[in-house]
Design goal:
By secondary structure, the protein is α/β, with parallel strands linked by helices. The chain has 2 domains: 4-56 and 317-420, Aspartate Aminotransferase, domain 1, CATH 3.90.1150; 60-313, Type I PLP-dependent aspartate aminotransferase-like (Major domain) (Aspartate Aminotransferase, domain 2). 37% of the residues lie in helices and 15% in strands. The protein contains 14 helices and 17 strands. The protein has helices at residues 4-9, 16-19, 45-48, 57-68, 81-95, 111-126, 143-147, 152-156, 180-189, 217-229, 300-313, 318-340, 365-375, 400-420, and strands spanning 24-28, 31-34, 39-42, 102-106, 131-134, 165-168, 200-203, 206-207, 213-214, 233-237, 261-264, 277-281, 347-351, 354-358, 378-379, 381-383, 389-392. It has a 7-stranded mixed β-sheet. α5 (81-95) packs parallel to α11. This is Diaminobutyrate--2-oxoglutarate transaminase.
Length: 434
Amino acid sequence: MDLKIFEQMESEVRGYVRSFPVIFAKARGSELFDEAGRSYIDFFSGAGTLNYGHNNPILQERMVEYLASDGVVHGLDMATSAKKHFLQTLDRLVLKPRGLDYKVQFTGPTGTNAVEAALKLARQVKGRQNVISFTHGFHGVSGGSLAVTSNQKFRKAAGVALGNTSFMPFDGYFGPDVDTMAWLERMLDDPSSGLDHPAAVIVETVQGEGGVNVASLRWLRELERLCRRHDMLLIVDDIQVGCGRTRDFFSFEAAGISPDIVTLSKSLSGSGLPMSLVLFRRELDVWEPGAHSGTFRGNNLAFVTAAQALESYWADDVLSKEVEAKEALVRDWLENLAHSCRHAGLTVRGRGLIQGLVTPVGDDLANQIARRAFQEGLVVETSGARDEVLKILPALTIPREQLTRGLEIIERCTNEVLASLGRRPQVLKVAGGN
């Protein structure tokens, strides 16, 4: 497959094409098809953007219908019928049933735009500059978002100093026996700790890019308690693990917490169209008109598919139950695989349909498995500080048969890679969750 035009004309900054070096031509559900007609099972889902699969027919039909009716596509922040319907649907199906009285701010089209707005708002409300973020956190690569992103690779590319952020250890950073929330509380309580009083704390309940690190529900509740006690706003970045990825619509629901600010993007539109927003408590709306702007904060086509996704998948708990069942299948399969290959030091972690097969740091094992899996027709990425985690991120709507076939590929490729490295697995049939 000829990729010369991309090598010749596209910047060296391109990334995913290096992991998946084919030209994709079509996509449907949980399958991608390259120009040669070969199909690939998708365990990547546009880095969490396609929770309902590629070209979901329900959303696609609504999109085409809207375009054919000459509906407004670009509207800045003007009032449109599409935006009205989305706001009404969001309030009726998501906010009101959860007792959330949030205002809605439409930002630029990407997740980092939402994070930038959330940070700016928190600093305006509290009149303070410092923000607490966490080790292995990822929140975007534009200025303010990058300042609260921990990964050195992204931070080095900034070219300027990144400040006004204090990084604290995420849950489990020092192992299971160290309470990192007690660490944070001590820092906040000590007037000589050197920690400037933060305006806010920003956190992912599950760190996707950081290596599928899962915050315990107790830890999240303690974090909310500390924010209330120390007059800090709690910002939950739900860009990758929201919209049902962890079973509930919001990933923080299981913890029973109520963030002050929530950022959403990726699968919000449902169809892969760019769309982001910030939700925040009504009393925090201190914005002056036009104080935070953006040409593409009015993607009306995304409003249309977002509303349809909510109506089709969040009017009841059918999808949530499907995610719960598929989580059990994936988790059981991976844990059986890790057990059969325990000589290789594999472990498993995750929540919902974001699961990670964790490999020892330093041997490039996860990348080798991902490359071998792609050769076998599976698109799956790695994450973590040293790409040590094979991140399983299928569409929430993936058929069970396709999900099982993808897991079989991971199992087979893991065993093949380990054998090639001289780490032959024990003779033990992986149950695969059956």
